[in-house]
């Protein structure tokens, strides 16, 4: 069996056509069943369709008996780093705004294998036991910021830095990271859209 929905970097499509909330809910249920009903950390980018698709994925996690931990807007590497039994980012990366997507990471923050994605697709029509939960967390951005400044940081106190955040998920992270390391920061395109 070959993959029907997963491409080279998750499932992507035009929202409302190829990628509907109903399909994303089924995908959330299937992925959670595949992970044996675990804890699923979910983040998203700044696309307008993100909140609805994040909620749809969470409903699928709940239907599969899992625990969806919704973190809101986060960069993709943060989701990989903070993955629980699974990490999921609702994002279509560089694609036009009418697109969105679902990328799934394993518990180690690694991209799933083609075989794992095929197994998840095989569970798209499976029923779940229900009784899962949704938790919303507000500390994920701070946790990620702390991690990157501790792990990769150095003294930038003599530097002036311009950070172009491209109005994306790094808007809440990149300027703060450079400031915490002592740089004088000018942030441009730092309003998520």
Kindly describe this structure.
- With 193 residues, this protein is an alpha/beta fold.
- It folds into two domains: 128 residues, Alpha-D-Glucose-1,6-Bisphosphate, Chain A, domain 3 (3-Layer(aba) Sandwich), CATH 3.40.120.10; 36 residues, no CATH class.
- The protein is 33% helix and 22% strand.
- Helix 6 links the parallel strand 7 and strand 8.
- The mean pLDDT is 92.
User: Helix proportion of residues, in percent?
Assistant: 25-40%
Report Rg. Answer: 17 Å
Distance between the termini: 38 Å
Q: Kindly provide the name of the CATH class of the largest domain.
A: Alpha Beta
Query: Which CATH-level-2 architecture of the largest domain?
Result: 3-Layer(aba) Sandwich
Biggest β-sheet: strands ordered side by side in the sheet: 1-5-4-2-3-6
| Integer average pLDDT | 92
CATH topology of the largest domain: Alpha-D-Glucose-1,6-Bisphosphate, Chain A, domain 3
Largest beta-sheet characterization: 6 strands, mixed
Percent of residues in beta strands? 15-25%
Identify the overall geometry: elongated
């Amino acid at each position: 069996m070959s993959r029907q929905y997963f491409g080279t970097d998750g499932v992507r499509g035009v929202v409302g056509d190829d990628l509907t909330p109903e399909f994303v809910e089924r995908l959330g249920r299937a992925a959670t069943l595949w992970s044996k009903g675990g804890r699923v950390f979910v983040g998203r980018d700044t696309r307008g369709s993100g909140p609805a698709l994040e909620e749809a994925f969470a409903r699928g996690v709940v239907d599969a008996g899992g625990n969806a931990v919704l973190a809101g807007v986060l960069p993709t590497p943060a989701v990989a780093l903070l993955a629980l039994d699974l990490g999921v980012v609702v994002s279509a990366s560089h694609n036009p705004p009418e697109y969105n997507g679902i990328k799934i990471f394993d518990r180690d923050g690694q991209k799933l294998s083609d075989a794992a994605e095929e197994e998840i697709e095989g569970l798209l029509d499976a029923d779940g036991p229900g009784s899962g939960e949704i938790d919303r967390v507000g500390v994920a951005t701070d946790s990620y910021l702390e991690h990157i400044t501790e792990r990769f940081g150095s003294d930038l106190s003599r530097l002036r830095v311009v950070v172009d955040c491209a109005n994306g998920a790094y808007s809440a992270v990149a300027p703060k990271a450079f400031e915490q390391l002592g740089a004088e920061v000018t942030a441009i395109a730092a309003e998520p859209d």
